[in-house]
Amino acid sequence: MENTKKNKGNFLKTFFKERKQVGALAPSSKFLVKKMCDKIDFSTAKNIVELGPGTGVFTEEILKRANPDCKIFVIELNTEFYEFLKNKFSDPRLILLCESADALDTIIQSHGVTQVDAILSSLPLAVIPDQIRKRIIIQAHNALRPGGVYVQYQYSLNAKKLLEMKFGKLQMGFVAINIPPAFVYLGIKK
Question: What is the pTM of this model?
Fold first, then answer.
């Protein structure tokens, strides 16, 4: 319970301080975490990327589900969240980086990886400048292996057209039990 209060406190403080990097008032609900993570085939995944982990609620679930030999790239631009995550996790599978998601190709290649199996994104696409947002989606698409999945949640449908430009037809979901309720996008690389 104490850890949950600390997560929410950090999240709110950072939300008001960094409005261009944080798109939510509270960490994601367990219902959203489950819906997003259920889209990834953890039984075969060797390389997974998480973009914008915030306080690590998705990271925790990814670590629970991932194989012992899976590399998990966790990319957080916000330095306060990055420091929080650095203190929270010590799993050897985790590669925690304080970087921008629009450099994804360089990031994974610097670790000897050319393609990943899944990308889970909590990035607040609605508040990211248009050119950077487009670069992130292009980089994510390029980083995925054929058949790889891109899972993204947003609080509106404003990112749908952008994601469809790279992934084609998306599978859509909705999680009402979240603050605020969230749309879940699933893109599969052809």
Answer: 0.88
